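--- STAGE predict ---
source: upstream dedup step, 1 unique chain passed
mode: sequence only
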Amino acid sequence: METYLRMADLPYQNYFGGKLSAQGKMPWIEYNHEKVSGTEFIIDFLEEKLGVNLNKNLGPHERAISRAVTKMVEEHFYWTLAYCQWVDNLNETRKMLSLSGGGPFSNLLRWVVCHITKGIVKREMHGHGIGRFSEEEIYMLMEKDMRSLAGLLGDKKYIMGPKLSTLDATVFGHLAQAMWTLPGTRPERLIKGELINLAMYCERIRRKFWPEWHYDDDNTIYESEESCEDSKTHTPLLDFSSYSRTETFEDEGAENSFSRTPDTDFTGHSLFDSDVDLDDYTDHEQCK
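--- STAGE serialize ---
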């Protein structure tokens, strides 16, 4: 939801009170004292109220594909990620939560909350049906979804082509978990290894729409699945309590001097940057 708001250039303020919507769900928003819950209904509401539309470049066939993929991600891939995060790797998740500063929770309370969440996730997955499969079968389903996304993306900048759509906010919001919150797990090894186009896609969106989200080393090196078995580094959970494009992108149009690094093209632009024209890069390389 946050990535969608950034893509649509809509300022917002986060509140981390833990309060659920009237339907007992997250996310939910309040706009001019009107509350709306559920990502799909929130997007419909914002399109009607504010006239934003990230799908204006999609035709009827592309819109149908976009909705089908959205539901695969939200109603299927989501649960396999939840299993990996809250059931199979609960201790690693608890460690990552402690890096956010602890918030209002003590270590003991955080341990209790994590284990309660594990029970809730297992119960919900059982009701959904996907939780009735074995661990290996759940990961097999996850891999099929990730391979489908990688195949659909191909070498395009965005899922549906050269321009952003609402689907990119959905896909990024889920793949980002595999990229940055599940260290050493099967989905992380897959996305940073065999399905490298998904990793570069995530990096493009992160750098374009989350400019304050920095790493100590932004020249990320992706390893093969076999070589990162022992690599379990944690990324601190930063406080993104508010966002305004005016504040964070004020220098976007300024000229910059680029240094050539392993992930930059001949102009100095990062190959992760969604604005880089890979065709121009290929033509330049052929002329050398």
